[in-house]
């Protein structure tokens, strides 16, 4: 074997191998590498987007929490005001009830006092008539007796 012929044959086989590799083997490998690089880039982009979305969501959650706290504070303040109003209304109603009961008691007391005065006047009139009858030791007729009682009642008023 000749060294030159072997060398040329090896060059031809090598060039054929390079051509075959570039034509049939290299494109699928490059395509697979490109797809892999694309998937990695898409994954990194999705991760960045997810990170941004997470930051926005955390910001929104913080804002919603702040709003909820403010709303809760407003509701609590409104409830406290409403409770104060209800307490004041209850106090006013209690004062009205006490006042009405006091007025009713005073009215009953005044009525009872008036009845007691009238009964006392009637008894005083009866005693006066009895005393006058005993003093005079005579009978008074019914008409004179009624007039005396009426006059006595008017004098006592």
Q: Ends: how far apart?
A: 168 Å
Can you count the beta strands? 0
Average pLDDT level: 87
**Ranges with pLDDT <50 over ≥5 residues?**
none
Please indicate the percent range of residues in DSSP E strands (runs of 2 or more).
under 5%
Shape, principal axes of CA atoms: rod-shaped
Helical/strand content category: mainly alpha
Largest sheet: none
Helix content: over 70%
Rg from Cα? 60 Å
Number of distinct helices: 2
Order of helices and strands: HH
Q: Number of folding domains?
A: 1
Summarize the model shown.
Belongs to the ATPase B chain family. By secondary structure, the protein is mainly α. It has two helices and no strands.
Can you offer a commentary on this structure?
It is built from two helices and no strands. The mean pLDDT is 87. With 157 residues, the chain is mainly α. It has helices at 3-136, 142-156. Helix content is 95%, strand content 0%. Helix 1 packs across helix 2. It is rod-shaped, with a radius of gyration of 60 Å. Keywords: ATP synthesis, Cell membrane, CF(0), Hydrogen ion transport, Ion transport, Membrane, Transmembrane, Transmembrane helix, Transport.
Please specify the SSE layout and strand pairing.
Blueprint: H1 3-136, H2 142-156
Keywords:
single chain; 157 residues; mainly alpha; CF(0); transmembrane helix; cell membrane
């Amino acid at each position: 074997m000749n060294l030159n012929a072997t060398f040329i044959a090896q060059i031809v086989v090598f060039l054929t191998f390079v051509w075959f590799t570039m034509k049939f083997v290299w494109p699928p490998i490059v395509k697979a590498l490109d797809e892999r690089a694309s998937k990695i880039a898409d994954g990194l982009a999705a991760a960045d987007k997810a990170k941004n979305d997470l930051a926005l969501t955390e910001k929104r959650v913080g804002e919603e929490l702040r709003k909820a706290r403010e709303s809760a504070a407003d509701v609590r303040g409104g409830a406290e005001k409403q409770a104060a109003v209800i307490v004041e209304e209850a106090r006013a109603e209690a004062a009205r009830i006490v006042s009405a009961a006091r007025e009713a008691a005073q009215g009953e007391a005044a009525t009872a006092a008036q009845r007691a005065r009238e009964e006392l006047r009637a008894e005083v009139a009866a005693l006066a008539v009895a005393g006058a009858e005993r003093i005079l030791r005579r009978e008074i007729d019914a008409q004179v007796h009624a007039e005396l009682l009426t006059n006595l009642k008017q004098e006592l008023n």
